[in-house]
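1st attempt posting a full record on here, be nice pls
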Amino acid sequence: MTTTAPGSTTTGTAATSLPAPSTPATTRRHWLRRRWPTGLGFALAVVSVAAMALVPDGARPAVGAWWVVTAAVVYLTWGTARGHLEERRWLTAETVGVLVFGAAALAVVAVDLSAAAYVMAAGWVAHALWDVVHHRADRVVPRWYAEACMATDLTVAASLLTIGLV
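the predicted structure (as tokens):
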């Protein structure tokens, strides 16, 4: 038996294709290469949380509320630029999304400061679900962006529920 190419061997005159051996280390590296948007999302979340720590306490709910609205507006803008909102149902969904996340942002600044972190975390979790819908549909924004945004949203929501910063 002689090796003719990586992953294939020959026996006599017939060539047989065998899968390359897989080790846990190569499997992890492959998974990490494919999940780079998740890593990017976690990194952006860390930067966002660090930036929020620099904002004065009284302004944090308003700044966080604007971030929630901005996340929704990015989808509307990007979908328009990519031409994915020509279907009325997608345009309607994105417009409703901006209105719903806008209402969540208003709720953040309207509620008592002790409840603001919970309302904002709920908004980020809702936006993560929005990301899942877009990722699965492969519409409006690129899949990598939806994945990165979901990782950011969930990390920011978790930080709001654990360390506060509102």
